[in-house]
Amino acid sequence: MTKNDISLENLKINSKNAHKRIVEKISNSPLIKSNIYGTDLFFKAENFQFSGSFKIRGAFSKLTQLDKEGVLKNVKLITASSGNHGLACSYAARELGGDLTVVLPETVATVKLEKIRSYGITVILEGQESGEAETHAQKLAKEEGYLYVSPYNDLDIIAGQGTIGLELIEALGQNGIDNVFVSMGGGGLISGISAVLKAVNPKIKVWGVSAENSCTLGDSLKLGKIVDTKHLPTLADGVSGGIDSDTVTFEICQSTVDDLLWCDEKEITSSFLKFAFDEHQIVEGSAALALAGYEKVSDQLKGQTSVVIACGANVDQSLVQKLLSEN
């Protein structure tokens, strides 16, 4: 991979090409005005996306590219995930005919595990968080000849996630967006969106939002180098886990993410409840995390047009019932 491969213009072109391949496989998710903040805030509602999260974009982008290259039907694929990427790849593999194994942490949300298994996909449970699952999947790929599909450290995956940026520009115009708030795990989502937006209009401000309990990418960007961090349980389980030491998302984010925010579990839970009670949407913790980030700085953004990426809605029913009944 060269510097040119990750130039903003090339990343935008990659996303446009990905969109052509996957447009019939995904939903152009709705852009919903906030009930609380009015036209100051819109939600890009990937919680209504096929497979329940934005991850379907990257999964179809990767697998359609492998199919285009004549590789998909001739290899065994393996991936690792906290749940949503594995679910999306399982959905795409079923549609396109790929042979897929998914490695998940033992703590994976039940709803995600059951959906993946419903597609007839081979599942391996390993580790307590997605970083440990990734390490195991990469080990199996080397030892047993699988082709590893990274949840984030892959330009085809990033291109797929970047199609959200294309849709935002189409909906609001290149000068109609002031701020975009994106929760950060491995960085595939924020890399794709921010690269497309910055290539179109460098003035759009991109905010990366991390969960304090698992914030490797956020801390790494703050320090200017990839570091290890502790991973504690978080409601935003979709962003938990470490990152590859050579992940391309780090370099992309260094040049495209303008500001960083960290949110604790109380703030994430509060935003989850606001989504449920005030915005009338049930989302997963990672989507609530992005709203929590916006709420930390909303006072200074009055009169501006901001977008929160509501990245998914694959949350256990029992957890939803618990959170709603306690509050």
The CATH class of the largest domain is: Alpha Beta
- Number of separate strands: 10
- Within the CATH hierarchy, at the fold level, what is the topology of the largest domain? Rossmann fold
**What is the helical fraction, as a range of percent?**
40-55%
Q: Secondary-structure element order, as H and E? A: HEEHEHEHEHEHEHEHHEHHEH
| 3D shape | globular
The domain count comes to 2
Hey, roughly how much beta strand do the residues contain? 15-25%
Number of helical elements: 12
Strand order of the largest sheet: 1-2-10-7-8-9
Largest sheet: 6 strands, mixed
* Rg (CA only): 18 Å
- Mean pLDDT equals 96
Write structural notes for this entry.
Helix content is 46%, strand content 16%. It is α/β, with parallel strands linked by helices and 327 residues long. The protein folds into two domains: 223 residues, Rossmann fold (3-Layer(aba) Sandwich), CATH 3.40.50.1100; 94 residues, Rossmann fold (3-Layer(aba) Sandwich), CATH 3.40.50.1100. The strands form two sheets. It has a six-stranded mixed sheet with strand order 1-2-10-7-8-9, sandwiched between helices. Strands 5-4-3-6 form a four-stranded parallel sheet, sandwiched between helices. Strand 7, helix 7 and strand 8 form a beta-alpha-beta unit.
What is this entry, summarized?
The longest helix has 18 residues, at 155-172. It is built from twelve helices and ten strands.
Topology:
Blueprint lengths: L7 H15 L8 E4 L3 E8 L9 H14 L7 E5 L3 H13 L2 E6 L5 H9 L3 E4 L4 H15 L2 E3 L5 H18 L6 E5 L4 H13 L4 E7 L4 H8 L24 H9 L2 E5 L1 H13 L7 H13 L8 E5 L6 H10 L1
Parallel strand pairs: 2-10, 3-4, 3-6, 4-5, 7-8, 7-10, 8-9
Antiparallel strand pairs: 1-2
